[in-house]
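[job 4471] stage=fold_predict status=RUNNING
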Amino acid sequence: MIYEVSHTTQVEYKAQVRLARFNLRLQPVPWPGQTVRDFRLSVDPAPASMLTRQVGYPVNVTRAVIDEPLHELTIKSSFTVNVGDEMFDMPPADLLVADVAQRALALQDVGGTSPCSYLYNSPLVPGSAEIGRWAGDILGRDVPALKSALTLARRIQQQFAYDAEATETDTPIAQAFAMRRGVCQDFTHVLISALRWFGLPAAYASGYLRTLPPPGQPRLVGVDAMHAWAMLWCGPQRGWVGIDPTNGCMTGSDHIFVALGRDYSDVAPIDGVFIGEGTQRLTTSVDVIPLEA
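[job 4471] inference complete, writing structure tokens
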């Protein structure tokens, strides 16, 4: 499936700010099963400098520096992507949890896509015995890793309510878990926490999701959003497989991959610092437009 993706972020500051430094993580990294072309990124007002590089994890970070005072900021990115279906098939052999954990620990590679980097606690996903107990009737050493992880994702879909007002980007995972409410970020953190508790390498993927209007209704413009899902390393033969707890499914051709990290803090689309005071208002508009199958 071929898509045209556009993403606009506007930040309005109540009072003038200056010396703004931003990290933008909007340019997709190369990933098996999809091809990206014609990526474009613009920032208004124009930065004094803007440099893009890939950091330790599979994340492209654009660092933008704006020296002039500003009241508002507009960031626009766009690209065309071809997402294939072949990478989303269920593997012929699903290794047991104990086997996946053992093979991950045995690897010597510590690169950005190595499962070793995603076995342990991270800033937004600390270890949680409570989440481990909650997942314990599904996950265990002697159960199929991928099948069990997908079952757990479907439990999250069934037991948690999607509520954009319930949490913020810095809401602790324990609070979101206790409420059984939140957004894709929260659900993904819960799934990652459970998988890591049982020794499985689990990562946080950011990207986009094609959304479909109700039958008979026209597609609305600007209503799509960035999405998040978990990636489970299923052994050296199959590698990384995407699991979407918000929708209780494996990732498919509707999922567009942008970046991979330990949790949201590694792949946040925008963060940074500035000198100033007062509040700020951020609005986002995303379009994921299918061009052809």
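[job 4471] summary: The longest strand covers residues 2-24.
[job 4471] exit 0
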